[in-house]
Amino acid sequence: MKKPKMHVRRDDIVRAISGEDADGKKTGKVLRVYPKTGRVLVEGFNFVKKHLRKSQDNPNGGIVEREAPMAASNLAVVTPAKKAEKE
Question: By three-state DSSP, how is residue 6 classified?
Answer without folding.
Answer: coil
